[in-house]
Amino acid sequence: MEVIIQRDADAASLLAARVIESELRANPRLVLGLATGRTMERVYAHLTRMHREEKLNFARCRTFNLDEYIGISPDDPRSYHFFMRRHLFNRVSIPARNTRLPDGTARDLPSAARRYEKLIRRAGGIDLQLLGIGRAGHIGFNEPLSALMSRTREKALTPMTQRQNAPMFGGDPRRVPARAITVGVGTILESRRCLLVATGAEKAAILAKAVEGPITSMITASALQLHPRCTVIVDEAAAKKLKGKTYYRWLFENEPDWAAFR
Ligand code: F6R
After folding, report:
1. Per-residue confidence at 7, pLDDT binned at 50, 70, 90?
2. Arithmetic mean of pLDDT over the chain
């Protein structure tokens, strides 16, 4: 794992977008794992601008999102399907057939989940998995106690996650769906590369536990410590409680792989 600390949320999002850009330019048929949420809005805004101004081409890449609420239709403005069209897909002219999200309206959720895993495998696996971290320490909707070898499945959302996501539901956590379908921690760990972005002071405590604490299913983001190629990009506010900051900064400054990004 490597941790890169940037001045503010915009710089962190730009660096994340630059990493995605360099992978996509190197491999136009990249298989991208995508996330939703407020952190990603900034990252997608940068990718959209790169598409518009710097000819970043998404036409041949394929995408798999991490999660979707159960019982919310893809046309509902609160769905993650809608979020992705609004913040990325419609703006970078990526063919709809190249984009996939778990189906939260499937009658048979276990078989929809198995199908999703199969689709990822058939695409050759995820090359680059973009991740945020929830206040409950989740990646995707892998809430506390999710098995670290879990696959795509239905999951109950914790009250903390319902509170975090309440703004999309009129500010009322009770209106946030209680369940979601999410790619598993095991599925995420099979991606060739992981890129976690965390910004803002409200992520500082959970981020420090995920990066520097023990690996535990109570904080599923901590499983990323096992991943052979995981980059964590944070702003100063989210980095506040990290003990190893000086070391992480030194690594970033001295690592030849990052020379083009400094
Ligand atoms: C959503 C997802 C979640 C979010 C996390 C952070 O698709 O995968 O794990 O990344 O809840 O959300 P924000 O960025 O809204 O704080």
Report:
1. very high
2. 98
- 164 SS3 class: helix
What SS3 class is residue 204? helix
CA neighbor of 158 nearest in space, from 138, 172, 175: 138
The reported pLDDT for the residue numbered 257 is 94
Query: CA quadruple 144, 224, 165, 92: dihedral positive or negative?
Result: negative
Mutate to test the pocket of ligand 1, among 82, 138, 176, 232 (most ligand atoms within 8 A of CB): 138
172 phi-psi bin (left φ>0, alpha ψ -120 to 50, beta other)? beta
Query: Helix crossing, 38-54 with 9-26: angle to 10°?
Result: 50
Cα 247 from Cα 236, distance rounded (Å): 15
Pocket of ligand 1 (CB under 6 A): 35-39, 66-67, 80, 132-134, 138-140
pLDDT for 30 equals: 98
Distance, CA 136 to ligand 1 centroid (Å)? 10
Structural domains in the chain, CATH included, are: 2-256 (3.40.50.1360)
pTM of the model: 0.98
The Cα–Cα gap between 147 and 168 comes to 28
User: Which pLDDT belongs to residue 93?
Assistant: 87
